[in-house]
Amino acid sequence: MALVARVSTRRVFSRHLHSPFPSRLSPHAFIPLPSLSSPRLSARNRAVAACLSSSAPAVIDAHTAGRWKPMCLYHTQGKCTKMDDALHLAKFSHDFMVDLKATTGSLNKLRPQNLDYLLVLDLEGRVEILEFPVLMIDAKNMDFIDSFHRFVRPAVMSEQRIKEYIEGKYGKLGVDRVWHDTAIPFKDVLHEFELWMKKHHLWVKEQGGLLNRAAFVTCGNWDLKTKIPEQCKVSKIKTPPYFMEWINLKDIYLNFYKRRATGMMTMMRELEIPMLGSHHLGIDDTKNIARVLQRMLADGVILQITAKRSSSAPACKNSYLLLSELFMV
């Protein structure tokens, strides 16, 4: 039995159909349209455009309906209003566990860790932070626990510059509308993030503000060494103490597998982990880094803090130097 949908083409990427489909599409997933054959459209965007075209219905058969679906980016921020819309639910996932579920067999080599929880973080935005995604993984059994995801509105850009910036960054992914609908200032993001951490007993401000039996996991040092202090300075706030140390997964990867990885894509390719979602969409990259992390845990890696920043350094980019590389290869 097939689901057939016909949707207006007023906007190729509509408010709630905001994330691209995977590049490897079933030949039965969509009816190809000649008008969508432009080489300027990516395979994913052509698929979404075909799905939304009024000149031909999108057909989702039972086999295709069971395949991978992109996350609803309103749901990741607690703002989805279409949970009773069958078509929306058929096209978008609302459950991270689908992609991050640890299998029983993967626990055979799992080793005890000195941390209870791992907070996978991958920021987006070079001028200012545009996206702040975190996935919480249980270090004891690799289970996905919870997520925190916010789009971030720049603090000092003009509205015209923001529009151009977002169009260039997220327009090609078809998620610029959801960004404009949901983005909030960085100060508000940190406030909501701290409430989220308190809920999970990861952080208590009155106890020094450091993480409790948890650590951030990043793909490189840039996110916490460079970008967070930069953004805090722009937003005129102090860099919170819970950002003072982290685990650089690339360093762990080099030490464990004895080969260097330049980034997430290299690690996924070498570990034969298929890419899910869109590269440089922060929540998708964070999910894929979490999948690499789960694979490394399953292979028996032991994690430890790889980098710290001086707590006495003044809050500016040049003074926030990497204090020490605690992880020696």
From TrEMBL:
CDD domains: ERI-1_3'hExo_like (cd06133). This is Exonuclease domain-containing protein. It holds the Pfam family RNase_T. InterPro entries: 3-5_Exoribonuclease, ERI-1_3'hExo-like, Ribonucl_H, RNaseH-like_sf, RNaseH_sf. Residues 117-302 form the Exonuclease domain. Coiled coil: none annotated. One of its GO terms (molecular function) is 3'-5'-RNA exonuclease activity. Gene3D superfamilies: Ribonuclease H-like superfamily/Ribonuclease H. SUPFAM superfamilies: Ribonuclease H-like (SSF53098). SMART domains: EXOIII (SM00479). Keywords: Exonuclease, Hydrolase, Nuclease.
